[in-house]
Every structure is written in structure tokens, then in C-alpha cells.
Amino acid sequence: MPAPLRPRPAPAPDLLPKIIMGVDPGTQIMGYALIEVRGQRVDVLCYDVINMKALGSNHAVKLKRIFDRMLELIDEYLPDELAIEAPFFGVNVQSMLKLGRAQGVAIAAALSRQIPYVEYAPTKVKQSVTGSGSATKEQVAHMLRQTLTLPPIAEASKFLDATDALSVAMCHHYQKGNNAGVSGGKSWGKFLADNPERLGASTSSGKKKAATK
Q: Quick one: which residues bind Mg(2+) 1 (predicted)?
């Protein structure tokens, strides 16, 4: 009689794929990036910006654009966690308020899909990526080019805003997700897996991504 088959051991938690969304808030241009992490391997899925300069001075319209685009990205890539840069303290109070609203709307979009989020101070992000909390945008982008394979981006003028968002995602990866879950809740991908009837209008590319995981 053949020996009974032994069940295969479950993959180690740190080898399971995890998708992290990084966001660098802005009221004119908001950077975003998505990375897939398997252990120490990091693949950049996309990095780009939400450009709101053509929307004029109506702040409410810009906030709606941020919310709608965040939901599109979440439904397409099904991130497990959101890492977002905390607003820095500046001299212009009105600019600070607007930036805080933009960050809040991005967080609200993630929470609406039950995605936990973590905030990181700008100096923490720079320190994690370059080793210096006072690094410039150019230095951050240079270090990311050295450590990652970056897909081409359509417009060079977008590059630094997009790499800023990518650095936030990488900062969260370097922290091993130790700060994840401050908002509680399940990931959007887990929610869809538990509630397939709610998949609804998710994009076909999102379905393809989920099917290959």
C-alpha cells in the first residue's frame, strides 16, 4: 500500500505576496505607487501622479478627483495596505489645511475598501530610503533607481512626485509592516475573496491580478 501523501507546509507568511500602495498627498499633484512584495523581492507595479492643475481653484472638485482615482487604483490592483506621507508643517496655514484634506480623502478611499493605512513622516521616509532624513527629492529618486527596476513613466516632469510616493511604499516595506493596521479592518483583496458577489464593477485587470495571486 502506498504511503499516504503528507500535506504540504503552508508558505511562510513573509513569502506570501503583499501589495502596498504608497501615496504622497498633494493639492495640485498627488503621487501614487503600487509595489508587490514577496519576502525581500519587490516589483514595482506602477507609479504615477494624479494631476489636478487643470481643475482650476475649486478644491472640492480636486478632492472628488482624488477619491475617485484612489478607488479606481484600489479596485484595479487590490492593495493590502496603504502607506501615506503625513503632511509637513509649513508656514502657510491655508495650504496646510488643504493638504490635510487631500490626505484625509485618500485615507477615506482606502477605509471605504477596508484597507488599513499607516502614516509616515517625510523625514522617516527619506531616512528609510536614503539613510538621510534631509535627502532631496532627486536623491530619493536616484536611490530608488539604484535599488529597483522602474517602469518608464510618460512625462519626465511627473517623475519626482511619483518616486516620492514610491519611497513611501518602500518605507512601509522596510518597516516590515510593523505599523500596519492602525485603522483595523481587512484588506480589500481579502474582502473580495470573502464576498465574491460584491466584485461587481471591478476592472478586468483587477480580476486578472487577483486570479494570478
A: 24, 161
**DSSP-derived 3-state class of residue 116:** coil
Residues with Cβ < 8 Å from 173, sequence gap 6 or more?
A: 20, 35, 37, 42
- Asked about 48 being catalytic, the answer comes back as no
72 close to 91: Cβ distance less than 8 angstroms: no
Active site residue 194: no
In the chain, the amino acid numbered 38 is R
Closest by CA to 166, choosing from 154, 149, 185, 188, is: 149
For residue 43, say whether it is annotated as part of any ligand binding site: no
Residue 76 annotated as binding?
no
Please check whether residue 74 is in contact with residue 113, taking contact to mean a CB–CB distance below 8 angstroms: yes
Phi, psi of 63 (to 5 degrees): -65, -40
- Is 85 designated active site? yes
The C-alpha atoms of residue 113 and residue 185 are separated, in whole angstroms, by: 9
For residues 81 and 117, is the Cβ–Cβ distance under 8 A? yes
CA 194 from centre of chain: 22
**Residue 122: partners with Cβ closer than 8 Å, 6 or more residues away:** 85, 86, 88
Dig out the grid coordinates for 150 from the structure: 522602474
Q: What does the pLDDT look like over 7-31, one tens digit per residue?
A: 655 556 666 889 999 999 999 999 9
Q: Note the pLDDT tens digit of each residue in 145-157.
A: 999 988 777 665 6
